[in-house]
Amino acid sequence: MGPTIFEYKIPPSSKNIKERRPPEACAESEYVFDIRANQKTLAMVIFNPETDKTRLDLRSTINFQRLWSVDVGEGFRCCLLHGEQWMVVDALNRRLYHVSNGGKLLKADKYAHQPWNIIQW
Questions:
Q1: Cα–Cα nearest to 25, from 51, 48, 49
Q2: 3-class secondary structure for the chain?
Q3: How far apart are CA 25 and CA 7, in angstroms?
Q4: pTM for the full model?
Q5: What is the pLDDT of residue 19?
Q6: Whose CA is closest to 53, among 79, 26, 21, 23?
Q7: Fewer CB atoms near the end CB (10 Å): N or C, the chain?
């Protein structure tokens, strides 16, 4: 069946306005580990069990078009940074992936401790 993504408009009512089903968001066999959005874009950390790979997809919130996609090891959480850049946590390999606003992997740092979540403040 695969993951389905629902978009809601909160104020003034919680009305479902869009529904994205596979293969629009990702393949039926894939899992969405994390999802984050701002006014213009939607980021999804997607795991493909057939290839055993995880990627960060960035899509337009207007038309859901994929803007870019980048491999992020075994990442499972993401965070929007200043300048519309992204950080992805790969706790299993103790890595943080820093991704540019254009989808280029800028840095992959390894840490002694497992980073499980990430936020910017």
A1: 48
A2: CCCCEEEEECCCCCEEEEEECCCCCCCCCCEEEEEEECCCEEEEEEEECCCCEEEEEEEECCCCCEEEEEECCCCCEEEECHHHCEEEEECCCCEEEEECCCCCEEEEEECCCCCCCCCCC
A3: 12
A4: 0.85
A5: 80
A6: 26
A7: C
* pLDDT in the model for residue 1: 62
Residue 115, phi then psi, degrees to nearest 5: -85, 120
The answer as to whether 7 is a domain residue is no
Q: How much is the pLDDT for 4?
A: 75
**Residue 8 forms part of a structural domain:** no
Structural domain count, the chain: 1
Domain holding 52: CATH number?
Answer: 2.40.10.480
Angle made by CA atoms 40, 22, 17, in degrees to the nearest 5: 50
Q: How many CB atoms sit inside 10 A of residue 85's CB?
A: 16
Give the domain extent around 78: 19-110
Domain annotation covers residue 82: yes
Q: Which two tokens stand for residue 43?
A: 């980021």
Positions of the chain with pLDDT lower than 70, given as ranges: 1, 7-8, 12-16
